[in-house]
Amino acid sequence: MRIIASDYDGTLNHGGVDDAKRNAVKRWQKQGNLFVVVTGRDKQFCPEMQEKSGIMFDYYLACNGALILNSRFEVLAQKQCGQNVLQNLIAELFALGCEWATVCADETVRIWSDTAVAKPRDGKTVADIGRFSYFNQVSPALPTFEESARVAAVIASRFSGIVNPLQNGTCLDIVPAGMDKAKGIEDLLTLCGAMHEDVVTVGDNVNDLAMLKAYRSYAMANGVAEVIQIADATVESVTELIELEMADLQ
Q1: Which of 63, 116, 130, 134 is 20 to 30 A from 235, comparing alpha carbons?
Q2: Angle CA(232)–CA(79)–CA(17) in degrees, nearest 5?
Q3: Residue 143 buriedness (CB in 10 A; 0-12 / 13-18 / 19+)
Q4: Which of 96, 102, 131 has its CA nearest to residue 115?
Q5: Mean pLDDT for the stretch of residues 221-226
Q6: pTM higher than 0.90 for the full model?
Q7: Cα 83 from Cα 197, distance rounded (Å)
């Protein structure tokens, strides 16, 4: 058994998910292999991901690996931070200029700063943080990549050993300390009894770097420079990756 661990946005979903990709994934699974999505998206998006792609994924590693779901969207494992961390983190993000941050837990809610210009009339505010006893991921968005990098550096320093801010374009995906896509895959391997050498990864953005460094890897040709530099090979699509891996198994 081998495992393809694929990012979703910009990777599996680059250019959409067509019949060629769907059929390639089905051929891969029919040979007894697993196809796993490793994404910064939250738990609530996983059923939509399945419906839109038309693919029955074997596992979902949501929130950059902090949440592991099976094909029925049942939670198998998760990493959390508590409400006190959430309160302090949101306050710091707003002080750094973020207008909103999405909190991912049992539900996903966008929390707005009191000073946000575009805040909806019924938008959730810091007063609504009390509805969360924990979070798997907090995701603010910044206007530029440089601003995202600046805020990530501040959060990494001020919340050292508590959270791990993963830059994802102009967004940040802030997960519990020690968590990233590589650790999520490691936790999945423990659950399903697979080995490190069974895994091949593919991604396109900087929050994919950890898993691409840790495992045999492909970069999407449309990916950022850091991803292309670190990966073992480059592909135009997940269909091409599967064809290469299937040929290697023959």
Answers
A1: 63
A2: 50
A3: exposed
A4: 96
A5: 96
A6: yes
A7: 37
